[in-house]
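Figure S7 source data.
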Amino acid sequence: MEETMSRIVAKFGGTSVADLDRIRAVAARVKREYDAGHEIAVVVSAMAGVTNDLVDLTRAAHSMHDAREYDVVVSTGEQVTAGLLAICLQEQGIPARSWLGWQVPVRTSDAHAKARIEKIETEEMERRLSDGQVCVLAGFQGIGPDNRITTLGRGGSDTTAVALAAALNADRCDIYTDVDGVYTSDPRIVTRARKLDKITYEEMLEMASLGAKVLQTRSVELAMNHGVPVQVLSSFEDAIGSDLPGTLVVDEEDIVEQEIVSGVTYSRDEAKITLMRVADRPGVAAAIFGPLADANVNVDMIVQNVSEDGTRTDMTFTVTRGDLDRAIEILEARKDELGFTDLVPDADVVKVSVVGVGMRSHAGVAQRMFSSLAERGINIQVISTSEIKISVLIAEEFTELALRALHTVYGLDAA
Ligand code: ASP
Ligand code: MG
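Tokens for the predicted aspartic acid complex:
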């Protein structure tokens, strides 16, 4: 338990505020933190499922709806939970008020449905916090330069919370969610996965973009850029954030014993495309990936093989499963221009990655991954690396086997 008074931003996700009983439980949680003498601002998501329903409504109204009106509709879920939480706090004797994004204001870019927070004007909130009040802010929303309501992209209330913590210069941003922290791997598959006490911003960023859905990627970027310590913790357990029961996302220097590999993650949202025998000459990669980029199809891993005769080569790359059909369509339409003989798609693949800042200073990390997969007869189809991660694409049927093997080989198994 911390001795001194801290300023904390606590964010509660959709499942934590799914109904009135849970909102009351959140209020009780906030009260304990408040009674311990901390200043606390709370960011809430919409009740679980509500945002999905609102998105469906806008689609049903018109498939080509105006993004500004979409924001007006989908931002309303958070208005309900912010108001209800303020009422529940008041009912427990705590002075509290709610804010919508525009009231603060939370100023954002004008990219409706995926706006970025530019500035949060916190003077009034600061005054109230030092006055012993609890501030409740509706997550996921802001106001654009055109004075219209914006939203931050799905999962955006994590970003609201971190941005508020940065603006308020808070000591910590606690993200209460339906898991009790960040794990070395997916505990549903790797039964010996462990909860990490700490993880670096960079590792969290890789893990978030590699498929671990704990935090919105943008929120981790913001936390890293502003040095906001973020804690991921369960909203269904009893401990409060100041007991530090979850996983802290922090700077590398705040971690004393750094493992070489901190996590083994996977993403099934992958599909592989091989173009057979494309011309091996300058401009071909640009001709393939340019039209895909123009159509907003993100290409992730790429390998180009050496050609036998110096004129033709195979090109393999991955896209998300949702983009596969579109990618095929775009490429088939350019078959003559690109000159490939066949397009071979494969959606039964999974990307398995190991992540760890320790890789920078240790050799042989990739070798261990490759040989442990080889020992189990798992063929690696594509490899990609960054400074702190190695990803391989393998057949989907080997997902469990690969995750467990790698978890063991890097010494991550719980005792
Ligand atoms: N309610 C929004 C969503 O479902 C924002 C959030 O929960 O973070 O995406
Ligand atoms: Mg979320």
